[in-house]
Amino acid sequence: MTDAEVESEIAWVPLTSSYYWQGEMKKVLIGGNKLKVDAEQAIFDSGSSLTHIPSSDYADLIASITAGQECYERETDIFCKCTGIDDDSFPTLYLFIGTHSFKFESKYYLMI
Q1: pLDDT higher than 90, residue 20
Q2: Which residues contact residue 67 at a Cβ distance below 8 angstroms, ignoring those fewer than 6 apart?
Q3: Alpha-helix residue ranges (DSSP H) falling in 7-97
Q4: Whole-prediction pTM value?
Q5: Which residues contact 86 (CB under 8 A, 6 or more apart)?
Q6: Of 95 and 84, more confident
Q7: How many domains, the chain?
């Protein structure tokens, strides 16, 4: 992350649960295209470096991210050829949670 990203303002999202840090997920965009998802809520946990999604949404999400890429699966992992962490051939992901949109460029979801 850059200093500008770390110093950005905190986004306050209305919580929809008293048990989890959970908010309403209104929309998901991948590369500017709306992805139909079954999940209506998002749970965010600063103690985890991974994001968990319902299995019913997983296949569509992966297909949208890897469209046009040279990828293969091995066990539960998916490997794609890329030029590095800043490979802009992978789409930007936007999550619309509560009243805010959160932008994830490929460098934030690719593991190199």
Answers
A1: no
A2: 91
A3: 55-66
A4: 0.79
A5: 106, 107
A6: 95
A7: 1
The residues pairing with 23 across neighbouring beta strands, listed in sequence order, are 42
Q: Is the dihedral of CA 14, 17, 21, 25 positive or negative?
A: negative
Q: Which of 51, 78, 52 is nearest to 65 (CA)?
A: 78
Distance CA 107, CA 86 (A): 5
33 three-class SS: strand
Provide the domain limits for residue 60.
3-108
* pLDDT tens per residue, range 97-112: 888 888 888 888 888 7
Alpha-carbon span 19 to 23, nearest angstrom: 11
| Residue with the two structure tokens 């965010």 | 44
Banded model confidence at residue 4, pLDDT cuts 50, 70, 90: low
> For residue 16, what is the domain's CATH number?
2.40.70.10
